[in-house]
Amino acid sequence: MRLFAAGRSAARLLAWLALLLLASPACAQGVDDLLPVTQAYQLKADAGTPGVLKLHWTIAPDYYLYRGRMKFTAGAGVTLGAAQLPDGEKHHDAYLGDIETYHHSVDASVPYTLAPGTTRLRLAVQYQGCHEVDPKICYPPHTEQIDLPLPASAGSGAAAANPLSNALAQLGSTPAGPASGVGAAPLPAEQAFRLDALAQSPHQLLLRWTMAPGYYLYRDQTTLKLRDAGGLSLQPAWPAGTAHHDEHFGDVTVYFDQVELPVAVQGDLAGRHRLTVDASFQGCQLGGLCYPLMNRSVTVDITGGGAAATAAAPAVATAPVAQAPLQMSLLAALLLALGGGLVLNLMPCVLPVLSIKAVSVIESGENPARRRSHALAYTAGVLSSFVALGLTVIALAAAWGTQLQYSTVVAALSLVMLTAGLWMSGVVQFGSSLGNLGSSLANKSGWRGDFFVGVLAVVVATPCMGPFMGPALGYALAAPAMHALLVFFTLGLGLALPFLVIGFVPAVARLLPRPGAWMETLKQALAFPMYLSAAWLAWVLANQRGADAVGLLMAAAVLLAMTLWWFERSRSRGARSRMLVVVLALLTAIPLYALVRLPTSRPAATVAADGVVAFTPARLAELRKAGTPVFVDMTADWCITCKANEHAVLDTDAFHDLLERTGTVYMKGDWTDVDPAISTFLQQYHSPGVPLYVVFPKGGGPGRQLSTVLTTALVEQALTEAAR
Fold first, then answer.
1. How confident is the model at residue 548 (pLDDT cuts 50, 70, 90)?
2. Class assignment of domain 168-309?
3. pTM
4. What are the pLDDT digits (tens) for 284-307?
5. Alpha-carbon dihedral of residues 562, 567, 570, 576, nearest 10 degrees?
6. C-alpha distances out from residue 352 to 4, 37, 136, 421, 467, Å
7. CA of 668: how far to CAs of 323, 475, 646, in Å?
8. 609-722 adopts what CATH topology?
9. Is CATH 2.60.40.1250 correct for 2-149?
10. For residues 87 and 78, is the Cβ–Cβ distance under 8 A?
11. Partners of 53 in the beta sheet?
12. In CATH terms, are 2-149 and 609-722 the same topology?
């Protein structure tokens, strides 16, 4: 794929050169006046700092260098780290898209490590630039070979001459990690640990530590504070690191190379344009020498999502993921919410629950008062549940469907669906009316059962977002609180609307079939979708917590069946018999409690099957920095829409051929279990949950968010445009 993409880039460049040369005959006459490439771009290399090669280009007037065309290839015995380049001048090129260029001069630093016995630093440096006035012409890529003697290794004298060594203390043993940099003279703290920051949105910062090869950072020795906080607080979400047992600190987590830390800003930002974060952290050099606590301050512009770096070093030139703007009116969001609620009635998660309600409405027959009672109680259950869910989502800034990331919730929902199926099969009865599900008392109105069905419909609806619900919920997550509550209320109104119409419009009610003996058969037949829903939730639980979790769920199901069995037998018995029902119900909760203690079974792999790259912010930034188009797929096992898109589009040979043809990397984020990095990514795009599909173009720039319902034509168009 890389060769194919490189071939396309070269072909486009040659076409551009040909166009420029043919556009004006005068160009040919002026080519002789151009400087040789090594004079237009004079490169100097300095290996005086151990572990870091410093490069400096002096660029002649009227010439410029492309930032994205710089490449560094290691020679024998040399391993190169990620080159650190400053941000260039950004502009849009008609042929190359969004680019960055340098004028006058530019400095770069390339960290390196050496194999034992290596005596010289050898590498190839490739770059490309253009002449920007007549004759406007670009040089072909030029490669220079660097061959430098290595700086003297730091012996006792060198260490003594370094004033920093007096401040270092030997702490802990060497953790398992990259073996580069061992034994070299310690770098100044500003070079060994570089801190940068950027604002992904006013309430979301991203801090990035970049460690020199052979250095690592302690997670638990890091503290963050806002200067002049004024009621604001910071909530960092640390990614997984490297486990290490330290002699002084005990079991700790450390980071090598680079770590990106999403930091949420909690509180009212009214009137603020910048935030200053004071960071205190500690890190070590491989070999046991640790730096004292380092204190840095970074100031971030939160109005435009700009990046800031500590004064010690230029900012990392990795483009942040842009926060998607809120481009929808309240009226449009409410209309989409109403339509989304209506569509939700047809979703596979909700349909089995609505079958219960349909049976109860049919049972009401020609009695208008009973129909209205059913409709109002059910609507009250739906609306109150949506409002409660909206308040929870707003308070926690959580996405729609996050409750299914918790194993106890998944297991409890599976048991609820099992209970409903057993009731519909006639194994157990709750009250005297078919619509009285959820009430343990037989009453004439049945409103408690109708209310409970409404609540249950909302609970099981969360993994089944319809195609029209995504924009409305995305608006709710980013809008003011009152607007968000209106959206959730309208979603509930859309879900309940069909039954309101049946209850209050006699002409529609008369279209319902008359009650009869067939209703019992229908009720029993509709029990099987409930059993399937319970089995599907058990499968989700297996993916989250493994076979042990399914075993606990089965034990809970057996205890639940025993509880329901004795509940039926206790109807004609005394109070002691009914107390046993309570005891059995409490025993059923014990396996659910045990689920909390089970570790996740989902591996933290970086590469999945079929060449799919697992999502991490650092890996995404790395690919974007390399100019690689990326298709990001945020999914979850409990997301029905995700599975439909995978079956129809993403798991097809046509999609994999498209990835190969466009040189696009397929990156997947699995949100089945809790993942703060994925949650942060969803917030950046105002996404109410999964699925979320974002395509990042080859030449840089913001990602393009696709529809939650994919088609082959839509994906092909997006990836083709991103690869240009």
1. confident
2. mainly beta
3. 0.43
4. 877 656 777 888 888 887 764 434
5. 80
6. 49, 72, 68, 9, 20
7. 20, 24, 12
8. Glutaredoxin (3.40.30)
9. yes
10. no
11. 110
12. no
